[in-house]
Amino acid sequence: MTATSGLGSPRLASPDLLRSVFRRHAAGVAVITAQGLTGPVGFTATSLTSVSAEPPLLSFGIGTGASSWPAIAEAEYVGVHILGEHQQELAATFARSGADRFGAPTEWRSGPEGVPVLDDVLAWLVCRVVARVPAGDHRIVLAEVVLGDPSGTGRPLLYHQGRFSGLRD
């Protein structure tokens, strides 16, 4: 490999390189929820992607070492919640290992198909899991949208450079 003018010094592929590059990629923030055998589970995800409009499919990634993985691995339905910029603490709670994610101050209810639905989000969906695809130390979950509500108000929460933030005008 040779350096290209103005591009710095290329580095060989590594987990650190991938993390460093994706810190520069601004991503929307979602929380994925499911009903587990011992109660609700959930995690913060920035890997949410729209896959298909017909049928309406989306995908997200989850590490197989994540505390939510056992429930997601068995769940027939999941909740997908798009967070607003006013929900930085909620995003941090669902990202923190060992946190009581569904205790106060988190406000939620049991929604369609028994999926935990978070209150005051910009939008939410209930989706039927159709596949779990192995991808290294993660699984890519493909899910078909069953129903949802896009009527929340506000601006989206973003994740960039290791921090949650809002859009700037």
TrEMBL record:
EC number(s) per entry: 1.-.-.-
Enzyme superclass (EC): oxidoreductase
Classification via InterPro entries: Flavin_Rdtase-like_dom, NADH-dep_flavin_reductase, Split_barrel_FMN-bd
Keywords (A to Z) from UniProt: Oxidoreductase
A GO term for molecular function: oxidoreductase activity
Oxidoreductase among keywords: yes
Domain Flavin reductase like: 22-166
Record Pfam families: Flavin_Reduct
UniProt cross-references to PANTHER family, sorted A to Z: FLAVIN REDUCTASE, FMN REDUCTASE (NADH) RUTF
Entry protein name: Flavin reductase family protein
